[in-house]
TrEMBL record:
<dbReference type="GO" id="GO:0005783">
    <property type="term" value="C:endoplasmic reticulum"/>
</dbReference>
<dbReference type="Pfam" id="PF13855">
    <property type="entry name" value="LRR_8"/>
</dbReference>
<keyword id="KW-1133">Transmembrane helix</keyword>
<feature type="transmembrane region" description="Helical">
    <location>
        <begin position="765"/>
        <end position="788"/>
    </location>
</feature>
<keyword id="KW-0675">Receptor</keyword>
<keyword id="KW-0732">Signal</keyword>
<keyword id="KW-0433">Leucine-rich repeat</keyword>
<comment type="similarity">
    <text>Belongs to the Toll-like receptor family.</text>
</comment>
<feature type="transmembrane region" description="Helical">
    <location>
        <begin position="34"/>
        <end position="56"/>
    </location>
</feature>
<dbReference type="Pfam" id="PF01582">
    <property type="entry name" value="TIR"/>
</dbReference>
<dbReference type="InterPro" id="IPR003591">
    <property type="entry name" value="Leu-rich_rpt_typical-subtyp"/>
</dbReference>
<dbReference type="GO" id="GO:0002224">
    <property type="term" value="P:toll-like receptor signaling pathway"/>
</dbReference>
<keyword id="KW-0677">Repeat</keyword>
<keyword id="KW-0472">Membrane</keyword>
<keyword id="KW-0812">Transmembrane</keyword>
<dbReference type="InterPro" id="IPR035897">
    <property type="entry name" value="Toll_tir_struct_dom_sf"/>
</dbReference>
<dbReference type="GO" id="GO:0006954">
    <property type="term" value="P:inflammatory response"/>
</dbReference>
Amino acid sequence: MMTTSDTAKQKNRRISSFYVLTLHPQLDDMTKSIYIALVFSGLLFQLVLLAAGYSFQNCIENPSQNNSFNCIHRRQRNISALVGDLPSWATVLNVSHNYLQDIPESSFSQLRQLKTLRMDSNNLQNISDNAFSGLGHLETLNLSSNNIAHLSSAAFADLVNLTWLILSNNVLQNLSTQIFSGLSNLEILSLRANSLINFSEITESVTHLSQLRELDLCGNSLSSLQHFSGFPRSLAILYLCKNHLATLSCEYSFLSNIHLLDLSYNMQLQSSALQNLNLKNINSLHLGFTQVSPYQLLNDSSVNPGHVDFSGMNLSTKNLLENLCSLLKNRNASLHMLNLQNNGIRNLERAIFSTCPLFKTINLSHNKLKKTNCLSFLEDQKSLVEVILEHNRLNGLENCSRSLRFHNVTQLSYRYNRILSVKSHAFTPTPRLQVLKLNINNIAYMVKRAFKGLKDLITLRLDNNLLTDLYEESFVGLDRLQILNLRNNRIAVIFNKTFHTLNQLNILDLGGNKISHLQPEAFVGLKNLKNLYLDRNYLKEIYREQFEHVQVTLQVLDLQRNLIHFMSIHTSSPFVKLSKLQDLKLDGQQPFGITLLPHGFFQGLKSLKSLYLTNNKIYTFQTDTFDDLISLEFLSLDNCCRGVAPLRPGIFKNLRNLKRLSAENIGTETLSAKVFGNLTKLHILQLTHNNIKSVDSALLNQLPNLRYLDLRLCPLSCTCINSWLQNWTKNNNKVQLVYLYNLTCPDLSQSNFYSFDLKVCYQDFGVYLFATTSALLFLMTVFPLLYVKLYWHLKYTYYAFSSWFGEYWRRLQDNEEQWKYDAFISYNSADEKWVLNELLPNLEGRESSYRLCLHHRDFEVGRNIVDNIVSAIYASRKTLCVVSQHYLSSEWCSLEIQLASYRLFHEYRDVLILVFLEPISERQLSVYHRMRKVMLRKTYLQWPSPDCSDPVQAQELFWSQLRRALRSSSINQHGEKVQEVREEHCPINEVTDDEISYLMP
């Protein structure tokens, strides 16, 4: 939702935009047009987003139930903080487990479509008048487990369609007679576990509720049922247990419409309290743990004996039970169930119930029985269907091969006893059993054919015992068995053909054992097995042959919390033949997880719909890991990765039917379209507690069915890279971004992601236009001046850079022996005669034999002249410039010395020799600052003038010095500055070698 401050910011941004258009006189019409186009382009970009997100301050919309919201465990004290931003179309709301104390008037007035409201487990003390005003469609209201002591008469106003009101576990002592006056459609009212004292107030408050069917008043402080008003005729179920009732003190017809009446745990209630009441319509009467005598009850009251629950009525001895049976038979009672729980019965003798009317179910749970006596105590009960002997002290099931048969008994339960062993023929008395419950005992031993003869058995529960071994004969004869539960025993090995006769078995539960090995034919014979549970065992490896006999039918395979791991990525898939498998659980392999998934591990699972890989520490997922799972709808990767390698692009490329992906705490750092972009049917994406800092703006547009995105505890960066995401969350109503307003900025203290400042990301376009225009005008003014004044400098710079990126790098690493020429001769064509007649004979003659490069002779034909010059300079150890008046006026000669000097100064090589053919004044050289710079730092030679006293000797010395310069190394080995000698006009013989050495820059 958009807050007031957010709205103001957007308004200010729009105002600033129009300010640019109206108050900047330097912006012409065209500029304004461009600006307007850019603004509207940005708006259009926001409008064309295919997906958008929304969030709520303290609530989460249930992704699997439309219009349902959970606002639990938010520690809120203010109801408006919880529900203030919820949409009007919400129908289910849960605000339990908060710190609410008050419900002010009209707290839910905007939620007029609400049908279910849970406010339990808060600290509610006060409910204001009209607190639920506007909730005319509400059907269920749960206010249990609070601290409500008082309710005003207008507390539930407007709840005209409420059918279920729960006020249990509060501290109510009184009720206003008009408290429920507006609840004309109320059907169930629970006031259990309060402190209500006045029963008459209760009856007055509910007497007008013509639709009320059930009223729960257990656990209050009622001492009588004295009343002035009666219950509505619709009331059929009344719970009055755990009160302080000693006498009822109510009219004869007060309970005439009640079908279920619970008066148990009223310790002082006497039999006489029920004598003068009309109880003919009671179908179930509970009087356990009271002072009511069952004999007086049956003799003196109008209740149907067959509808009385005799639990907790101290019927512990043979005589009491026989007298009860006789009384029931004398009253011609028609019994469906004989319920004798909590009577302290220690022993049941043979045929003790033979005098009782026939019944179908007997419940002897929560007594002190130590033996079953092969059910001989039920002799003559030919209609018996179900026997329940739970929560006793049975320590074994004896051999009953010679006992009576109860051919109608189909259900037998021995749960919650202390049974250690089951002997042969233990179930001979009940040959047609369909459901047998032996779970939650201490069974450590069963004879190999303990269940012999139970050919009709459908469900067998042996879970939570101490069984260690199963044999080939253990389940022989159970031809119709469909459900076998062996969970939480101590079985270590499943031997061959253990279940070979169970060809109708649908569900086999072996979870929670110590199975470390499955023999090759362990599941042979299970032709119809659909669900196989092997979780919480010690299996270290799984392979194809283990499931060979169930591969055609198996739909659910649970392998959670085993020891499965792989040492090689080339292990073949164990599931390749399980073509009908729909649910596969591999969560939490111990002790370190699977760690390594082989290539094609899920190959063959074309029908799989749910895959659980939670709590494994997988190093990496290959791009083909999930390729075969084309039908997958749910994938759980929570805490499954080490976070070392990111999810690779294309890893989910074939999961086009995936609807829910849970990948919490897997260490992923990116939320990109390359990884998640193919999940076109995805509804729910949970990425809590990852290291995601940014979201690819293209991703959410590639997930058209996304409705739920959870990025809690992710360090989303509050920078411009996520600016689009902030806008996306403010202008939408399609995708729920969970608890957006709780996302903080890790890079900005005390800032929230939804409201971090975007000013730096959306600067005013006018600033940019003004800056661009100013820069353009400046360049257009300055550039012509620079062109006129610095033309040659710029041109030289261009060529210098050409040489830098061309021959420079290639030649920089070469050795001296790799030069093609000893010197490149740079001269003007006007001086060509001197070069050909004087220079070449003295340097390429027989005495010297130097290799010289001349442009008219050695340049490559057809090649760019600049490239030829650069190539010649960098292919020669030295560059010899023949300087004259003509040379200084030549553009190309200037370029050559310019490039040579660049090599001199940038390579730190002594590569340049200057030879002056005629005197050049300082004034003439002042224009050529680069040449003057070289002359100041380098030795140069002067061709002797004809006026010298001895021109021949001077020329010989000139050629000697020039040859020495050409022979010298390109790099000064000492790096020291040596005194320079400049030979001018007529050099003398006293000039030393040091005086003509070439200096390092």
